[in-house]
Amino acid sequence: MKIPCTLSLMAAITLSFTTPSLAGPSAWNKAEEALIQERIETMNLPVASIYNSQVSDMVRRYVTYGYRDAEYMLGRSDRFFPIFEHYLKINQMPESLKFLPIVESSLKPGVRSHAGAAGLWQLMSGTAQELGLSVGTYVDERLNPHLATEAALKYLNELYGRFGSWELALAAYNCGPGNVRKAIRNGGSTDYWKIQHLLPKETQNYIPRYIAASYVASFYTEHNLEPEMQSYDMQFTRATRIHSGISFKKLATITGASISTIRELNPAYLRSYIPESNKGHLIVLPEMAMRVLTDYQRWSNSLGIETDLPMVKTVLKADGNTPKIPITVVIRPGETLAQIAADYRVPVQSVREWNNIPANADVYFQQALVLYLDQRPGSV
């Protein structure tokens, strides 16, 4: 979405001017630039992989005096790229669109622009609400990585359907479809590169920034960049929907996760409180904390807390006497309810019943499911 230049790629990554021994302006030469051009031109992007002075300048910022901020950004990619990949696969969209939030937010889920855009995908409030997200006093779903990704991809798909070109769709995402249509009329062309100069200044740089961000995320090792990895609790997480109102403080007491960790994983809850909801609010917790919450629900008879976490029960085989074997599976990028059912050779309806999944709903990334099988996977 359109954001002021202070939060665009060139400044969202606050540039450090300390030059490392293996990456710096002095290390930039014609031979390396030729290699960068060759790599970019072979990248599988939904836009034309063009290498020009704009792209070159953007790449230079990442791998020279902006290298430390790039390393922090790359460290966050392990946390967010799997989420993007999941919803991109579900929507059958180009996987390399996962690099777009680097341009929008430098992969900072809680970032806000002076123009009012927020989250990894920098959605404006009005657009977000039109796409079905809640933006209010207690909850701003633009800051929820899962929900914001679903909404942003829905919008991008609409724009692609409208313009028939990913260059134009991305440009419209940045500056609005009206500005793109105006540039097309004035330029007499639907080629982004031919009407680039007619677009708002920030949008003129938007596709070059996307290309540069995609390059750095794909070839950072070639420039001696070392991702600043996040903590175990940030990297290994699980998701569930919670229907009961609960404070972060109580959630921390139950699970053992710190309030700061819960807050960092769930920036959408603006007052450190998850309101009651029949539909359920999506929360993310460290893997071990989610296991503790599951046990708490199981042994406390769910007193005060209702979630989508699966509770193991007894399901009998066809003979009516022998219990089936329960196993837990966690949804990985691109997996659907139908795919899980097919992989384990169980009816979709049974999976829904075992996990209380409504008829019109699918599974979500990092959701835990319980399946009941006649024999353990892999056994004969």
Structure explained in plain terms:
The longest helix is centred in the first third of the chain and has 24 residues, at 67-90. Helix 7 (145-163) packs across helix 8. The N and C termini lie far apart (53 Å). The chain is elongated. By secondary structure, it is mainly alpha-helical. A two-stranded antiparallel sheet has the order 1-4. Strands 2-3 form a two-stranded antiparallel ribbon. Strands 5-6 form a two-stranded antiparallel sheet. It folds into 3 domains: 5-108 and 161-223, no CATH class; 237-299, Membrane-bound Lytic Murein Transglycosylase D, Chain A, CATH 3.10.350; 325-373, Membrane-bound Lytic Murein Transglycosylase D, Chain A (Roll). The protein has helices at 9-12, 30-41, 53-63, 67-90, 100-105, 125-130, 145-163, 166-175, 177-187, 192-195, 201-204, 206-219, 232-235, 248-255, 259-265, 287-299, 337-344, 348-355; strands at 237-242, 246-247, 273-274, 281-286, 325-330, 368-373. It contains 18 helices and 6 strands.
Number of domains: 3
How many distinct beta strands? 6
Task: Average the pLDDT over all residues and give the rounded result.
Answer: 91
Q: Name the beta content range.
A: 5-15%
Biggest β-sheet strands, sense, barrel: 2 strands, antiparallel
- Which segments are poorly predicted (pLDDT under 50) over 5 or more consecutive residues? 2-26
Multimeric state of these chains? single chain
Termini Cα gap: 53 Å
* Strand order, largest beta sheet: 1-4
Shape: elongated
What is the alpha-carbon Rg in Å?
23 Å
User: Structural class, please?
Assistant: mainly alpha
| SSE succession | HHHHHHHHHHHHHEEHHEEHEHHE
Count of individual helical segments: 18
Helix content: 40-55%
